[in-house]
């Protein structure tokens, strides 16, 4: 019975992140990667503002409700309508289950492309209810949350600390395995030199150096001298800044892997981390996803995932 249950189990990712962090691009790239590596994959678009995604969409929330309908019917703005749409999904989980369950039964790895409105995944209950149902016993799905953060935030220490707090609060709110990702690292050169090397920002260690950089820095993120008002604000909230850094370090939960969606090795690393976090396996057994033998995977013909079993 245990083997039968394991064989019927599905796997996938919840892709979250602020607007512009690259969620749709990530889903498109990962779907393409899985196609090349022989892993069946289906993308579920749960973002009602994403009308024409570039990936092949197996299920779209617009089949149930659209953002424009919510705005028109209830006289809501875009943010309020987005929250309403996700609440509507949470009240109509049978609709989602009817569409996702057959995909899981076909052995497809499922990607959920979620909205970028941050309050949905770090404080609002609707999305958490959806996630709790999807990962519950009736759905038989193991899901990992992939949280994308635009790597250009590393160029501004204050924004980077805000991103750390967002990542931490999302991990605590959703209560799923998490892989935090600094996306678009191939574009980092456009934002100038970092105060520290990229590994420092990925490992999230010794944040007191970053707090001191905010308090003592003579330049802002774009290399110009801060205004008197900015200097005053830094001094006024210096204790708060250090306290937030200590909070992140005390939890010890947040770190990042880096991603350039067009770089094969970078994508393999993210896939390996997500697979490990949910214990992904297929008919060939547990998968290391990006171990020895992956060199032939992108060719698509010589790929046998059983060769990756560790």
Summarize the structure in short.
With 310 residues, the protein is α/β, with parallel strands linked by helices. It has helices spanning 2-7, 23-37, 67-74, 78-91, 93-105, 118-122, 125-134, 157-174, 198-203, 208-216, 228-236, 238-251, 264-278; strands at residues 10-16, 41-45, 57-60, 109-113, 141-150, 178-183, 257-258, 281-282, 285-286.
Could you characterize what this model shows?
Helix 8 crosses helix 12 and helix 10 packs antiparallel against helix 12. The protein has 13 helices and nine strands. It is globular. Helix content is 46%, strand content 14%. Strands 3-2-4-1-5-6-7 form a seven-stranded parallel beta sheet, with helices on both faces. A two-stranded antiparallel sheet has the order 8-9. With 310 residues, it is of the alpha/beta class.
Features:
310 residues, alpha/beta, seven-stranded parallel sheet, 13 helices, globular, disordered C terminus
List the helices and strands and how they pair.
Blueprint lengths: L1 H6 L2 E7 L6 H15 L3 E5 L11 E4 L6 H8 L3 H14 L1 H13 L3 E5 L4 H5 L2 H10 L6 E10 L6 H18 L3 E6 L14 H6 L4 H9 L11 H9 L1 H14 L5 E2 L5 H15 L2 E2 L2 E2 L24
Parallel strand pairs: 1-4, 1-5, 2-3, 2-4, 5-6, 6-7
Antiparallel strand pairs: 8-9
Strand order of the largest sheet: 3-2-4-1-5-6-7
- What best-fitting shape do the alpha-carbon axes yield? globular
Enumerate how many helices there are, as a single number.
Answer: 13
Average pLDDT for all residues:
85
Quick one: how many beta strands?
9
What is the first-to-last residue Cα distance? Answer: 24 Å
Structural classification: alpha/beta
Strand content: 5-15%
- Profile the largest sheet: 7 strands, parallel
